[in-house]
Amino acid sequence: MEKNSKEKSNTSRSRFDSFNTINEKPVDDISLEAFYTPHSISALAISIAIVIYFAFVRDTDNVENNIWAGMLCCIFFFLIISVLAFPNGPFTRPHPAVWRVVFGMSVIYLMGCLFFLFQNYQTVKNILLWFDPSLKDFHIDMDKEYGVNCSDITLERIWGHIDVFALGHYLGWLFKAILIRHMGILWAISFMWEITEIAFAHLLPNFIECWWDALILDVLVCNGFGIWCGLKICEKLEMREYKWVSIRDIHTTSGKIKRAMLQFTPESWTSVRWLDPKCSYMRVFALCQLVLFWQTSELNTFFLKHVFELPASHPLVSARLILIGVIVAPSVRQYYSYVTDTTCKRVGTQCWVYGCIMVSEALICIKHGRELFERTQAINIIVWLMVQLVISVACVIGCVMWHRAGLARGNSRDLSPVKSVAGAKVLFENSDEKED
To answer: What DSSP character marks residue 246?
Structure first.
């Protein structure tokens, strides 16, 4: 009886530790205690002092300014509460408070999406015009067209397509490569996105591209170069030796500055193993789900911009992309642990919130873009879903078979450029690896 109870206790403790590592990871080897000591009373006093000052000193004659000030004050206090109460997720660099603020911002954004979901189109449009009155002069037809005169292939025209959005395209895929770290999955997502653009081109005109723009500039140059650079960065970070010295033990000024800058780099780096030859069917399903969710999240960006008529360079579009980017980073880490770690029985909180955001954005697009979706060609969507399913399943199964073939050749490499820690022996172990 005592032995069984001890085993159950150890199992439950292991599950709790596994979830706690990805949901609220503790900081190891604290060298500057002042930066990690709670200052809740000080934060409360400073916050109240700021509120008192701005509440009684500022001019309250302008109603719009009053609304702005009230909204900013609510957001400010909510983020303070986030630092004090919310989990920091799987990351501790540069400081857990940063990731608690990210979690708080994701909750605020989710609340905003849910609020917009229960409004009519004109109300949402009026809110956006209140944020930026210049939007009334923009119509989605004014967006740049890429699929015009495709037979005119000149160096000047190709160079004209390499704009700031091409740079953003490249940086986006570099970021995705650092997050996913698996060449097979990344190329599957890249190829499937081009199919997604073809399937939804009848709804989103800016998805219409020339063949050389889609295949050469998008897939090979922006996507391919971004994936290659991202995986090279992962390879360098994995080969790096992580031995952190306290800033107190560094005596030179340049050394202290370098150590402070390194605080913004990962604390450690462990190879990511999405697949292995003994992975279960549930992991295959989870990876297919990841690919489909990624496509949905990308589609939300374009449909939101099209439905509410926002220019691609608008600050609201850029701010949303940056916010989604910082939210996705811990979400992918938590999803990876949930998929690969058999002792982790719960998905991380940040991943859960991001799932709600993705669904809420999709519902907003469907509800407020009803006239747009009435023109949907059902056969395109059905074929798109079938192709997405087939390619994602084929990619996952192909990666597993490649891994098995590598094991038969005595090669323990995964499809990513990252080596496993213990060589071929790791292929037979449960891949419960962690990353920061």
So the answer is: -
